Amino acid sequence: MTEEKRVTPEPAAQAAGRDAIYELDGRISVQKAVPFGLQHVLAMFVANIAPILIVAGVVHLGTEETGSLVQTAMIIAGIGSLLQMFPIGPLGSRLPIVMGISFTFVSTFCVIGVKYGYGAILGAALVGGCLEGVLGLGARWWRRFVPPIVSASVVTAIGFSLLGIGANSFGGGFGNPHFGEAKYLIVGTLTLVACLVQAADAISAARPGARRENLENYIKRLEKLEEITGSYPGVEKSYAIQAGREVRVMVKPEQVSEDQMVILARELAKKIEEEMEYPGQIKVHVLRETTAIEYAK
């Protein structure tokens, strides 16, 4: 008789090992702080400038207007980042979050801009920003009704909506008289390949024990998994298998009934979620064996 329970962690718990750089109050060396800080700033530059250039190209803004928008975006991003790190009342998360422009509304703004002009884009941004702010204040109450599959679907839909814009940028950009020339196609191809390689590396790194430097943390995680599941009354032995993606728990049939197995699997899964950090999900497999022995004389 067996009972299975799958454990899926919160998104924030999926990403990290126990390196100090992933800890909220972790202290890291200057050798790590400088390159990671530059990485954040450079990522913010790209995220801030790219949406502006895309929308400006669609609505045919002049060079001066586009430059003014870029400058304004950088200033607001800096103010937003400071508010995140040094909150004022309820504004800010007290985390080193670098703020920037979102790609979420780029496709929508492109449609609005072509039909109604840049003024309509500013109006839509004001209304959308106010709406997002109101929803954000109540996120703790409604977030439970938005499972990860919904977030994934929304992000995927946003990505598909940007395919047309990406294809135009791949060839040289909107209104470029040299659209489709070899130099643009080469740069676009190299960029696409780099993104695919980075995504493949991230997927590979998420596998338990995939990186040598995480081997010690990987072994400790397996040991802790067996320790947590083996500490419950009635558990005879527990085994972490499939690189920690499954744990099999053997229970004593005289102490744990078939009905109690369901409760035990659920409690073990909950305890793993509370006390461990791990990529993907862990299947908790509770097994109970009942045997009858008789001797023929």
Largest beta sheet: what is the strand line-up? 1-4-3-2
Low-confidence stretches: 7-17
Query: Helix and strand succession?
Result: EHHHHHHHHHEEHE
Quote the beta fraction. Answer: 5-15%
Helix content: 55-70%
Radius of gyration, whole Å: 26 Å
State the end-to-end distance: 30 Å
Overall morphology: elongated
Number of strands: 4
- The number of helical runs is 10
What value does the average pLDDT take? 80
Structure class: alpha+beta
Largest β-sheet summary: 4 strands, mixed
Summarize the structure.
By secondary structure, the chain is an alpha+beta fold.
Key terms:
four-stranded mixed β-sheet; alpha+beta; 10 helices; 297 residues; 57% helix
Task: Report on the architecture of this protein.
- The protein has helices at residues 30-59, 63-85, 106-116, 118-137, 139-142, 148-161, 163-171, 182-205, 215-230, 258-275, and strands spanning 2-7, 235-241, 246-251, 282-288.
- Strands 1-4-3-2 form a 4-stranded mixed beta sheet, with helices on one face.
- By secondary structure, the protein is an alpha+beta fold.
- It is 57% helix and 9% strand.
- It is built from 10 helices and 4 strands; from the N terminus they run E-H-H-H-H-H-H-H-H-H-E-E-H-E.
Give the secondary structure arrangement, pairings included:
Blueprint: E1 2-7, H1 30-59, H2 63-85, H3 106-116, H4 118-137, H5 139-142, H6 148-161, H7 163-171, H8 182-205, H9 215-230, E2 235-241, E3 246-251, H10 258-275, E4 282-288
Parallel strand pairs: 3-4
Antiparallel strand pairs: 1-4, 2-3
